[in-house]
Amino acid sequence: LNSTQVSDLSPLAGLTALMTLMLHSTQVSDLSPLAGLTALTELWLAGTPALDLRPLRKLGKLTESDKRLEGLSFKYTAATRTDGRIAEIAEIEDNAERAKTLFAYLEGWEVPPGSTPQPDPSPPFIFLSYASPDRPRIAGWTDFLRRQSIPLWWDQDIPAGDTWRSRIAAQLGSAHGVVTFWTQASVNSKAVIEEAAQAQALGKLIPVRLDDAPLPYGFAETQYLDLRDWDGTATHPQMRKLLQALSDKLNPPDPAAISARISAASPVAMLPVNGKLVPFDTPPHAPPEKLNDPDCEDRIEGLRQTLSAIRPMAADRDKYQCPADLGEALKIVDTFLNAPKPSWHGFQNAQVILSECMKDHDAKSAWNGVLVSALNRLIKGMKGMRPCLQPVQVPLDLPGAKPPVTDPVVRKADIVEVATLANDLSVAMETEDAAKTLSQDAINAVLSEIDLIRTAANAPTEKRKFARLRQGVKGLAYMSGAIISGVSIGVTTNLLTAPEAAITLAQRLQPILDRLIHFFL
Questions:
Q1: Could you tell me where the DSSP H helices lie in 107-151?
Q2: Peptide bond preceding 387: is omega within 30 degrees of 0, i.e. cis?
Q3: Distance between CA 428 and CA 349 in Å, rounded?
Q4: What span, in angstroms and rounded, lies between the C-alpha atoms of 1 and 28?
Q5: How far apart are CA 8 and CA 449, in angstroms?
Q6: Comparing C-alpha atoms, which of 465, 478, 468, 461 is closest to residue 520?
Q7: Are 483 and 509 spatial neighbours (Cβ–Cβ below 8 Å)?
Q8: Between the CA atoms of 212, 213, 217 and 220, what dihedral angle is there, to the nearest 10 degrees?
Q9: Partner of 47 for a Cys bridge, out of 15, 25, 220, 259, CB 3.0 to 4.6 A?
Q10: Nearest residue to 350 via CA among 336, 360, 364
Q11: What Å distances lie between residue 247 and 143, 154, 173, CA to CA?
Q12: Whole-number Cα distances in Å, 54 to 45, 51, 98, 108, 444
């Protein structure tokens, strides 16, 4: 329930087997309904107006949390703002020790008189965090975002005579979203890093990258928006995503709105052909720029030959010293190059995965030059297939253009849930209902997205692991949503050979899609 408007927990009081509950940045203040949820091993309360933490003392399993779980997290609550000792306890790094110390302190503790938190009467706004050497540049951003009707606050809005540090802390806590501008100056600023860390813990962080400076450690869970090549317009793809993210922080969408947005933005549609659903690049009825170009098949064959030459080099670890995840990236490329019906979505996925693998390992400096040249030719060739494969898109400044979809947030505590969802979808693809409803191309398209999640564990860095998980979650949402929509179309138009099996499959996928959507909220 992170970052939702939920305030009443009484409907949860009977869920005595519940093990994980995430409530950070909600309006929850009364924790008494949680007193009977004794199976809880993980409870997030950061950024809530919860003041009286005493109902939590009966939740003994929170004191047994291992390193993989957050246990009890209560930073930036009303309790920590009211009681300095609770604030100190909230900073204890060991999860089990943090909960044990809190429960011991709460014995005999009373709510301080007159400390009942009051609702924040201020309208929602976005906090801008940056390093002071970047102030002239950020001033331009401030002007632009305000012209897009985004309510902002930055430190230049502090009135004369006000206390600078306390006002920034208060505004950071009250903001609905925090844009952190990562630059060479800000990645070395302790103040900016602390503000970003607090915003990330509260589910408010919107990171924006403005130059090539490597991001500080600890921010892999939230994907940055890359505006290094921003052209100054509101229709720039990454700017559209930024504006959408800001709008969502100011006016949080409900799951139905996110589901509709994902459906409208999906790069894949599943449509009935010969009685089964077949994947198409979207919009499915628009032709590519180079329709039926006879050169396209020759170019794909050339890419296959390039890949065939590369794979033995990548497999020769002694001679070429390539990492194992290069082999995994090439396997994904092979899947899309040899698909019976090549798709732009697949080619784009493959070249992005391969490019990021090379970037992560500094291939230009660390790998054999012949191999690197061949890989770059392969990537360039896949990018060059766009006019032959991708349907012509509606321009971003015209009605009907695909809406921007902000990237899902996948936290360490979510990794098991993501793996479970991938497994559930994989099992669904093995059912007789799937075999009767989906073409083999459709099943393979789903399995390729599942592979992204399954290979994430082998990623060389935390950054790459979470990037792959985010890409996989988005892909699973696109695919499951496309299948559900395709079933609806196929059943309505009577174009599916096995409509009952299709309906059963859609019913099985809907709960999976519902759970995936929550990563976008």
A1: 135-147
A2: no
A3: 23
A4: 10
A5: 37
A6: 478
A7: yes
A8: -20
A9: 25
A10: 336
A11: 17, 18, 18
A12: 13, 9, 15, 9, 51
In the block, which residue shows the tokens 């920034």?
168
CA-CA distance, 358 to 351, in Å (whole number)?
Answer: 11
Spatial CA neighbour of 331 closest among 307, 356, 306: 307
* Residue 163, token pair as written in the block: 């206390």
**Of 171, 213, 167, 212, whose CA–CA distance to 188 is shortest?**
213
Q: Alpha carbon 428 to chain centroid distance?
A: 23
Give the residues across from 217 on adjacent strands: none
Amino acid at 337: L
pLDDT in single tens digits along all 521 residues of the chain: 876 778 889 889 889 899 999 887 788 989 999 988 999 998 989 878 899 999 999 898 988 877 667 789 888 788 887 888 898 898 888 888 999 999 999 988 888 776 655 444 568 999 999 999 999 999 999 999 999 999 999 988 776 555 566 778 878 888 999 999 999 999 999 999 999 998 988 889 999 999 999 999 889 888 999 999 999 999 999 999 999 999 999 998 989 999 999 999 999 999 999 999 999 999 999 999 998 888 888 999 999 999 999 999 988 877 877 888 888 889 889 988 988 888 999 999 889 889 988 987 889 888 989 999 999 999 999 999 999 999 999 998 888 899 999 999 998 889 999 999 999 999 999 999 999 999 999 999 999 899 889 988 878 788 889 998 999 999 999 999 999 999 999 999 999 999 999 999 999 999 999 999 999 98
Distance, in Å, from the CA atom of 213 to the CA atom of 192, rounded to the nearest integer, reads 14
Distance CA 6, CA 25 (A): 10
Cα–Cα distance for residue pair 368/400, rounded to 1 Å: 46
CB 31 within 8 A of CB 56: yes
3-state class (DSSP) for residue 86: helix
The residues, any chain, with a CB within 8 Å of residue 481's CB and separated by 6 or more, are 259, 262, 263, 266, 513
DSSP 8-state symbol, 457: G
Q: In this structure, what is the dihedral angle of CA atoms 177, 248, 516, 255, given to the nearest 10 degrees?
A: 130
Residue count of the chain, please give it: 521
For residue 65, the tally of other CB atoms under 10 A from its CB is 22
Side chain identity at residue 80, one-letter code: T
**From the CB of residue 286, how many other CB atoms can be counted at a distance below 10 Å?**
14
How many C-beta neighbours within 10 Å does residue 7 have? Answer: 12
Tell me the three state secondary structure of residue 394: coil
Nearest to 207 by CA among 177, 236, 232: 177
Whole-number Cα distances in Å, 69 to 55, 224, 506: 21, 24, 33
Whether the model pTM is above 0.85: no
What's the per-residue H, E or C state across 491-521? HHCCCECCHHHHHHHHHHHHHHHHHHHHHHC
